[in-house]
Fold this sequence. Notes:
With 207 residues, the chain is mostly helical. Among the domains are: 1-41; 56-130, Winged helix-like DNA-binding domain superfamily/Winged helix DNA-binding domain (Arc Repressor Mutant, subunit A). Helix content is 68%, strand content 5%. It has helices spanning 4-14, 21-41, 43-52, 58-67, 84-91, 95-107, 129-150, 155-168, 171-181, 183-198, 202-206, and strands at residues 111-115, 123-127. A two-stranded antiparallel sheet has the order 1-2. Helix 5 crosses helix 6. It is extended and about 65 Å long.
Amino acid sequence: MPSRQETIREVLAQRRKDPDLAEALLRIDAVAQNWRRQMHKRELGHRALRALGLDIDLAQVDVLFAIAPPSFAMGSNDEDETMVSTVAERLAIDPSRASRLVAEMVNAGYARRAVSQRDARRAILELTPAGQAVVDAVLKFKWLLLGEFFSGWSKDDIAAFVPLLERYSTWMRTSENAEEKFADDIAQLSRSIAKAKSDVPSSSQSG
């Protein structure tokens, strides 16, 4: 069975790409997978909860950030008013789950319900001073640690790294064009899977 590096080199060679890319792609993939595992485990978030002595979990912290002023909220503008449906949308969770989490934060004193300034019939959500303090503290915890890490980098390294990271972060969006470009190759890969499955003895498939 060929190694991962041999497989990558073969794919690159077939498309007349520089085979020396193989080692770089392996390293990038390894870093990305490790980063993804850390993000999935939310190691920094758990460390923040422990260090700050917070009595809430990360799902509840997420709700506070979703309720926070628009400058802290993803996909919002300065005129947004936050409702339960807004929290569900910002966190990409079911409205019933959002409602339960919001209720927990209201009962714990981290959030409160208020009347919309645009429509008095509509209830909106706001952070209490305690909720705002949590959001501020978690953000500052992250910036302290991130700032300490990057303080050891030279200005030139940072100037080179930031635009390259931003550029790399777009590869998934641009990969749709590549998927269309390599449609025939991908179809062949799909057929190879089907063939491999058909070659498996029936006793192995049933077992």
